[in-house]
């Protein structure tokens, strides 16, 4: 692992821990100032000079803005609006929620009607993008949006500047659309042979990251939903519905997370190797390489994460 990768991973771990601590404090009555301090620290850690990749700058800005909204008549709405604008960046990776709450900050900052209208259109557009995911069965705890009643009550308090205290304890963190980002309960991983990061995401964010990465250049991208087969996106743009089986996805997951070790040559190990390599051959992903080089690649799975040709591999997978 490069020094830059190590530094980035340490920074992500620090931000994740501060988010978790801040959200714990947020849910405690009277813990708002402690929560603000922790979320401020998380927000600063995600920005330059560290400058973590999405979604970390966005989620820390959103969490901090959301909490600062509770300050009643003392609320600094211009600061909140800047935070929500940042939370809406990164190709809108957090979806519609930052844009919805930005309508509040823009209104409180007396923004022009056209700006409010544009923000509303952007929120509706993002909500439509999220709909196919939100309509699917629940797979992890960071999946659902809060009930409409609670959201409307929050909005009313934010718009009017009324005291937030009566609403304390009414919010269920587990029902937040991306509640578990940085907390550790989400079920989805995006594993990349070029990256050392292994962070759990809610499904919506994981799918966006997976799509963005597989569209950046030549790679093998594998999408696995926990069923019998996976979907393989090939470098030539072709999509094969029945690529790798569940057992082969386990092999990729161990390889990309650096948990593989050289195998003892048992009968089962040889069969497993044969099935895995045959699948790569069927997908035309093993070029004309000498057998000993392929054998070296298979045995050194802890070190050789990409394909034998050097082609990067990305896997979207759900934790079992």
Count every beta strand, where a strand is a DSSP E run of 2 or more residues: 6
| Helix segment tally | 11
Largest sheet, described in full? Answer: 6 strands, mixed
Series of secondary-structure elements, N-terminal to C-terminal: HHHHHHHEEHEEEHHHE
Low-confidence segments: 131-147
- Which oligomeric state applies? single chain
Helix content range: 40-55%
Folded structure, characterized:
This protein has 320 residues and is an alpha+beta fold. It has eleven helices and six strands. A six-stranded mixed β-sheet has the order 2-1-6-3-4-5, sandwiched between helices. Helix 3 runs antiparallel to helix 4 (77-87). It is elongated. The relative contact order is 0.09.
Keywords:
320 residues, alpha+beta, 6-stranded mixed sheet, 11 helices, 6 strands, 7% strand, elongated
Summary, kept brief:
With 320 residues, this protein is of the alpha+beta class. The protein has helices at 3-26, 32-45, 56-68, 77-87, 97-108, 113-134, 148-160, 203-214, 246-256, 267-282, 291-299; strands at residues 188-192, 200-201, 220-223, 231-233, 239-240, 313-318.
């Amino acid at each position: 692992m490069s020094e830059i990768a190590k530094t980035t991973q340490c920074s992500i771990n620090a931000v994740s821990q501060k988010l978790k601590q801040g959200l714990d404090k947020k849910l405690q009555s009277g813990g708002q100032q402690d929560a603000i301090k922790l979320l401020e620290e998380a927000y600063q850690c995600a920005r330059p000079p560290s400058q973590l990749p999405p979604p970390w700058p966005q989620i820390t800005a959103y969490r901090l803005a959301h909490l600062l909204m509770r300050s009643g008549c003392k609320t600094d709405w211009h600061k909140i609006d800047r935070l929500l604008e940042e939370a809406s960046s990164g190709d809108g990776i957090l979806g519609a929620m930052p844009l919805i709450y930005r309508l509040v900050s823009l209104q409180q900052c007396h923004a022009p009607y056209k700006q409010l209208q544009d923000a509303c259109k952007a929120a509706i557009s993002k909500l439509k993008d999220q709909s196919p995911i939100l309509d699917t069965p629940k797979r992890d705890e960071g999946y659902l949006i809060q009930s409409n009643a609670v959201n409307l009550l929050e909005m009313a308090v934010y718009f009017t500047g009324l005291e937030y205290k009566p609403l304390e304890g009414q919010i269920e963190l587990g029902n937040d659309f991306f509640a578990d980002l940085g907390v550790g309960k989400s079920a989805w991983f995006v594993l990349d042979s070029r990256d050392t990061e292994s962070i759990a995401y809610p499904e919506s964010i994981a799918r966006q990251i997976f799509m963005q990465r597989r569209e950046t250049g030549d790679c093998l991208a594998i999408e696995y939903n926990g069923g019998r087969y996976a979907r393989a996106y090939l470098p030539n743009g072709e999509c094969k519905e029945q690529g790798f089986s569940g057992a082969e996805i386990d092999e990729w997951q161990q390889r990309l997370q650096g948990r593989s070790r050289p195998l003892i040559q048992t009968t089962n190990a040889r069969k497993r190797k044969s099935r895995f390599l045959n699948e790569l051959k069927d997908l035309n992903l093993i070029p004309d390489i000498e057998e000993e080089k392929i054998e070296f690649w298979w045995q050194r799975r802890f070190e050789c994460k990409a394909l034998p040709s050097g082609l990067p591999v990305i896997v979207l997978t759900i934790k079992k």
